[in-house]
């Protein structure tokens, strides 16, 4: 059962389109968009990715995900380091 859950998380993660702040940023990342998406979604249980971008923030290459949780106001912004896969920030933004 656990393998099915993990598999479906990765499969849904691959459906997210990551926009590049500047062309070529995805090629510089060591972490795949699918892995970064799965990491971000693990931080926001029940969430759905509304948008995703790879960008430079504070000198680091990061994936930025806006995640919406049904029934809750605003969105959660989750930043995932594109080189290590570590979550480097989680912030709630009101509507």
Describe this structure as you would to a colleague.
The structure is a single chain. The chain is an alpha+beta fold and 95 residues long. It contains 3 helices and 5 strands. The protein has helices at residues 2-13, 25-28, 33-43, and strands spanning 19-20, 47-57, 60-69, 75-81, 87-93. Strands 1-2-3-4-5 form a 5-stranded mixed sheet. Helix 1 (2-13) packs across helix 3. The termini are far apart.
List the helices and strands and how they pair.
Layout: H1 2-13, E1 19-20, H2 25-28, H3 33-43, E2 47-57, E3 60-69, E4 75-81, E5 87-93
Parallel strand pairs: 1-2
Antiparallel strand pairs: 2-3, 3-4, 4-5
Helix pairs in contact: 1-3
Concise summary:
This protein is α+β, with helices and mostly antiparallel strands and 95 residues long. It has three helices and five strands; from the N terminus they run αβααββββ.
Given the C-alpha coordinates, what overall shape results? globular
Would you report the number of β strands?
5
Q: Give the strand content.
A: 35-45%
Regions with little confidence, pLDDT below 50 for 5+ residues: 1-14
Number of helical stretches of at least 4 residues:
3
Name the structural class: alpha+beta
Strand order of the largest sheet: 1-2-3-4-5
Q: Which value, in Å, is the CA radius of gyration?
A: 13 Å
Mean pLDDT: 87
List the quaternary state of the chains. Answer: single chain
N- to C-terminal distance: 36 Å
| Largest sheet features | 5 strands, mixed
Residues in helix, %: 25-40%
What's the order of the H and E elements? HEHHEEEE
């Amino acid at each position: 059962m656990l393998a099915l859950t993990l598999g479906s998380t990765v499969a849904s993660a691959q459906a997210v389109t990551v926009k590049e702040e500047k062309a070529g940023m995805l090629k510089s990342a060591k972490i795949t968009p699918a892995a970064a998406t799965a990491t971000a979604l693990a931080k926001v249980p029940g969430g759905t990715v509304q948008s995703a971008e790879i960008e430079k923030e504070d000198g680091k290459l990061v994936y930025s995900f806006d995640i919406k949780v049904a029934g809750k106001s605003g969105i959660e912004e989750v930043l995932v380091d594109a080189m290590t896969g570590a979550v480097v920030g989680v912030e709630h933004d009101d509507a």
